[in-house]
Amino acid sequence: MAEVTKKETEETVSQQQVPEEAEHEVQLEEDQQPTNGTDEGEDQLAGEPEEVDEKEERIRELETKLQEQENKLLRVLADFENAKRRATLDKEALNKYKAQSLLTNLLPVLDNFERALAVEVKAEETQSLLTGMEMIYRNLMDSLKGEGLIEIEAQDQEFDPNFHQAVMTDSDPDKASGIVLQELQKGYMLKDRVLRPTMVKVNE
């Protein structure tokens, strides 16, 4: 009985030591786990700023490209508006001065009418002819004025190089310097555009 009791006592002691050793091993594992978990967390935190920087850089690149595309679009729209405005102005000018070529070609005809009407005649038959020519001339001038033809005033006006062409000078003490003394050839405008300046004699 004494031997059995001794054996049982040793087994009981052995069983008590095993849990203590196992518990010690478990404690070591638990002590190591937090350390490993902390290292992984630090690695993740260290990697996050790099990912954030890459995203921010990508966003800046996309914003820059978007701004460039917007600028290109604005330039294209501006060019389109300018082209549209030029086309409108050209169309308006074409309508406004559509008779320019015809009127320019008719200016020599008007000059010949004026020369013929300036001739002094005594014969009654010739006078009747001139009267008829004068009526035709007036009708023609009325029609041309309806298209925008304007005679440039020059006689006794101050010389203006925009509308007058000085081909001669003279001296008249009764008039100021730069005053037109005589019209040598009549000038004309089409609305606000000069077709031909008036050829004049100017006072010195």
Task: Give the secondary structure arrangement, pairings included.
Blueprint: H1 2-96, H2 100-117, H3 124-146, E1 149-151, E2 164-170, E3 180-185, E4 188-190, E5 193-196, E6 198-203
Parallel strand pairs: 2-6
Antiparallel strand pairs: 1-4, 3-6, 4-5
Helix pairs in contact: 2-3
Brief rundown of the structure:
The chain is an alpha+beta fold and 204 residues long. It has helices at 2-96, 100-117, 124-146, and strands spanning 149-151, 164-170, 180-185, 188-190, 193-196, 198-203.
Please characterize this protein's 3D structure.
The chain is 67% helix and 14% strand. The termini are far apart. By secondary structure, the protein is of the alpha+beta class. The chain has a domain at 97-203: Roll (Nucleotide Exchange Factor Grpe, Chain A, domain 2). Residues 1-6, 13-26 and 34-38 have low confidence and may be disordered. It has a three-stranded antiparallel beta sheet with strand order 1-4-5. Residues 1-10 have a biased composition (Basic and acidic residues). It is found in: Cytoplasm. Residues 20-32, 39-54 have a biased composition (Acidic residues).
